[in-house]
Amino acid sequence: MIFLTPFGFVGFLLSLLGLRRPMSVYIYWIGIIWALSLIKISGCKATVKGRENIPRGGGACFVSNHGSIFDIALLLAYAGRPFGFVAKRELLFVPFLNMWIYMLGGLFINRSNPREAMKTIHSGIARIKKGHAMIIFPEGHRSRGQDLLPFHPGSFKLATQSGAVIVPVALKGTREVFEKNYRVNPGPVGITFCKPVPTADLPPEERKQVLADRIYNVIKEELMQG
User: According to DSSP H, which parts of the chain are helical?
Assistant: First the structure.
């Protein structure tokens, strides 16, 4: 991150001058370089499955389990398209990291203020309707080895209110890389993109808990396959 920050800073300044669209592509490729480099430097061997399930265009939501900060590296490296995500507002005040989150399409959410939080969600919905992709971590926070935590139905608003296709994503082995003892531990990691789930025609009664349970079971089944 330190090595690539000067390149990111140039992109950040140019985006502020009205060149955010071309700069977003530029930053996306820097992000891929960072992610692939991090995976290689960590000594981890990544197994990737189901990339044919990733929509190449149109609005989409990747819905993933979240066991480690290493998850972002895997997603950046192999999602195959730019994406944004919702980050907690506290990260807005972390130097350099806040710039990268912004440039990668991240949105900062103030969970203590429901009105501001809804504005952030609506910004994400508008972005998806324009054909962009977003990532959702419906567990709410990193599981830290507690297996797959229950999904919050409200986190699916980005997908259901934009009518986006959901791509369930199962991440394996990422906690052991760093989160287990906060030291880098080389090992196998895996990312599986499961079959897309359309949401545009879902009846209202299936857009919350029913949908959350359905995606939860898809990811849980994939994780149990080892």
Answer: 5-14, 20-42, 71-78, 97-103, 114-129, 157-160, 174, 209-224
pTM above 0.90, yes or no: no
CB neighbours (10 Å) of residue 158? 27
Domains in the chain and their CATH numbers?
5-224 (3.40.1130.10)
Q: pLDDT by residue (tens digit) across 131-176?
A: 999 999 998 766 565 678 899 888 899 999 999 999 999 999 988 8
107-109: strand order across its sheet = 45-49, 188-193, 165-172, 60-64, 133-136, 84-88, 107-109
> How buried is residue 13: exposed, middle or buried, by Cβ count under 10 Å (0-12/13-18/19+)?
exposed
